[in-house]
Amino acid sequence: MDLATEILLYVSSAVIIHILVFYFVMVTKKKGRNIKDKHVVVTGGSSGIGLWIAVTCAKQGAHVTLVARNVQLLEKALKVVEQHRQDASQRLSFKSIDLTKSYDEVAKSLEEVEEQNGPIYMLVNCAGMAICGVFEEITPEDAQFLMDVNYKTAYNCTRYVLPKMKHARDGIIVITGSQASLLGIYGYGPYAAAKFALRGMAETIAMEASHLGVSVTLALPADTDTPGFENEEKTKPEETKIISGSGGLHKPEEVAKKIVSDALNENFFSILGAESWVVTLLCSGMAPWGGFLFTVLQAFALIPLRIISYFVRGQFTSIVRKCAAQKKLRQEVKEKKSN
């Protein structure tokens, strides 16, 4: 067999394997859990992905409680969710809670939520935001804020529901990370640190609680057209916009629908789109993603992807260097004009 034939066979095999892996991740269906008449709590539910997750759950007949801080936004969000009510018996409500407060304060508020709408069957941790910038330019106060609003909020809520779900031997926990939970990107320093923490928490809880009937899903949405993304864009360095902009912008309703579907199907990762799938495959490590056959397929798919990732990383480095050169040139021009 000549070299050209060998290469052709290898490339053909790689393509087939990638199609099979993508099929396993994106297409295959299994009988999922049912949330009809069960209580779903969505943090960060006043807008964006959280709001559309609440809408998706309401469409499936769940009792839904929206949790956020801003009462006015919560009132508006509840009106949107009400439009998707399936029957008069559904309990749709909101609760204003500052989830960055102490655990005891958050637990007390969640107890009140359960008294009103029943035990929490599904918790969707969707509260969070990003502040972008070069690592040393983000203030210590902002870095702490990012850890509080992204990690501490999820920790407080999950710590409250987890022992109850273990005792009931039933329940679903969704932790919303992002692609920044998988790899560090220029301009995302403290934000990525908080999102990496969420991944560690999700993997730990999955190992501790899956045998007790508690399903854990780590959602990894790419850039999504939400109010939070609009605010994020205001602080993004030029390098970050170029690097992260290649994946396009997803609609929040599509992302929400995928997250709920993956959670009900007990998938550990929830991803949408080919680019997110590739990044997740490259960075999944020992995460509980799929069975033995799927793991074997991943192993074969990783060979060419790991090589491709080397050149992608090189492209990222090239972007950073090019932007640095342009900044230096602009600074020199500015100094000449001022002299």
From TrEMBL:
- Please describe what this protein does: Catalyzes the reduction of 3'-oxosphinganine (3-ketodihydrosphingosine/KDS) to sphinganine (dihydrosphingosine/DHS), the second step of de novo sphingolipid biosynthesis.
Protein name per Swiss-Prot or TrEMBL: 3-dehydrosphinganine reductase
Ordered alphabetically, the record's keywords are: Endoplasmic reticulum, Lipid metabolism, Membrane, NADP, Nucleotide-binding, Oxidoreductase, Sphingolipid metabolism, Transmembrane, Transmembrane helix
UniProt cross-references to InterPro entries, sorted A to Z = KDSR-like, NAD(P)-bd_dom_sf, Sc_DH/Rdtase_CS, SDR_fam
Q: A single GO BP annotation from the record?
A: sphingolipid biosynthetic process
Q: Which SUPFAM superfamilies match?
A: NAD(P)-binding Rossmann-fold domains
**Which Enzyme Commission number(s) are listed?**
1.1.1.102
Q: Where in the cell is it found?
A: Endoplasmic reticulum
- Whether Aminoacyl-tRNA synthetase counts among this entry's keywords is no
A GO cellular component annotation here is: endoplasmic reticulum membrane
Q: Which organism is it from?
A: Hermetia illucens (Black soldier fly)
Q: What class of enzyme is it?
A: oxidoreductase
Give the record's pathway. Answer: Lipid metabolism; sphingolipid metabolism; Sphingolipid metabolism
What are the protein's GO molecular function terms? 3-dehydrosphinganine reductase activity; nucleotide binding
Similarity comment text for this entry: Belongs to the short-chain dehydrogenases/reductases (SDR) family.
Q: Which residue ranges run through the membrane?
A: 7-26, 293-312
Primary location? endoplasmic reticulum
Q: Does the keyword Transcription regulation apply?
A: no
Q: Which PANTHER family is this protein grouped with?
A: 3-KETODIHYDROSPHINGOSINE REDUCTASE
Q: Please list the reactions this protein catalyses.
A: sphinganine + NADP(+) = 3-oxosphinganine + NADPH + H(+)
Q: Which Gene3D superfamilies match?
A: NAD(P)-binding Rossmann-like Domain
